[in-house]
Specification:
Strand order of the largest sheet: 7-8-9-6-5-4-3-2-1-10-11-12
Number of domains: 1
CATH superfamily: Aldolase class I
Shape: globular
Strand content: 15-25%
Mean pLDDT: 93
CATH architecture: Alpha-Beta Barrel
Number of helices: 10
Number of strands: 12
CATH class: Alpha Beta
Helix content: 25-40%
Oligomer: single chain
Low-confidence stretches: none
Radius of gyration: 19 Å
Structural class: alpha/beta
Distance between the termini: 30 Å
CATH topology: TIM Barrel
Largest sheet: 12 strands, mixed
Order of helices and strands: EHEHEHEHHEHEHEEEEEEHHH
Amino acid sequence: MNPMEQLIDSFGRVHNNLRISVTDRCNIRCFYCMPTEDVVFMQRNQLLTFEEIERVVRVGVTVGINKIRLTGGEPLVRRDLDQLISKVAAIPGIRDVGLTTNGILLAEQAQQLFDAGLRRINISLDALDPVKFKEITRREGYEKVIEGIHAAKAAGFDPVKINAVSIRGVTESEIVPFGKLAREAGVEIRFIEFMPLDSDNAWERDKVLFADEIVDTLSREIMPLLPMKNRDPQAPATEYVFEDGVGRIGLIASVSRPFCMSCNRFRLTADGKFRNCLFSLEETDVKSLIRGSGTDADIARAMIESIQAKKIGHEINSANYVQPIRPMHSIGG
C-alpha cells in the first residue's frame, strides 16, 4: 500500500481501527454520558443507513482499516443491527468486529449477534450493587444487564468484557466485587478512568478514581495483580492477572496514563462525521460525500485528511484542554 494512501498521522501513528456509532439514542441515562431529561436525539434521516456504513467500511479497508467496533448511544436500540454486522463481517479485509453495549437488550439479541459474525463484546456496567447501578444510570435495568452477560457467555462470546467507569466518591465500593467477579465468572473487568465528556460539564480531576489506586486495592484485598505479558501495545487497556492466574483485569487510564502516542483508533459518528480523536473539536463530514456525488476516492481522501490532522494528544492534563461540545452519547463510546 502506498504510504500516501494509508491512515498515518503526522506523528507516525498508523490507524487500522474504526469505531462506528450507529445511533445516539440510549435506554439509560448515565450521568457521565448524557442529561437526565430533555435529550434531543437525531432524526432517523440524519443517521447513516447500513448500506452507507458498509460503503465507508469497504473504502476504509483500502486504506488499512481491518478492525471495527460498533457503538452508540446504545447500539442495540438500532433495529436489525445483526444485519449490519453480517454486512461488515463479510467484507474482505475486516478481521475483527466488536460491539460495546449497556447490555439491557443483550439477552434477547446475543445469539443472533454471534450468528451474524460478531465475536467480541464489551458490556458497560459500572456497579454490581443494584442501588448504585440506578444511581449512576438513573434508570432500572440491572437484572437485564446481568441476564445479558449470561446470554453472551452462553452464545459463545469469549472473553466477555465488562467496562466499569471508575468515579471517586461513587464506585470505590465496587472495585473488590468486580475483582471477585473476574475470578468467579470468567469475565474480564476493565476499569475506565472517569473522563471529561459528561453532558453537565461537572467533571473534575478530583473525581477521577485512578488506575493505580484500583490495582492497589485489588492487590491488597484479593491477591497481588501482575502485568500481563505480550500485551498489544496499541490496546487502550493495560492488562493484569491475579497472581494465581485466575481473573483478568484491564485498566484504561486515559487521565493518569494517557496512551495517545499508541492510538490507532478513530470514529465515525451516527450522523456521518469522522472524528480523529474522542476529544476532538473538529469533525470531517463524510455524509455529504456519500449522499452527494462523492466517489469512493473522495471518501478515502476525507478519511486520510482527517487522520493527518490528528493532534498529538487529548490535553486532558493541560490548561489547553477544551471539552467537546458533543456529549459522549452523541460521539460514540
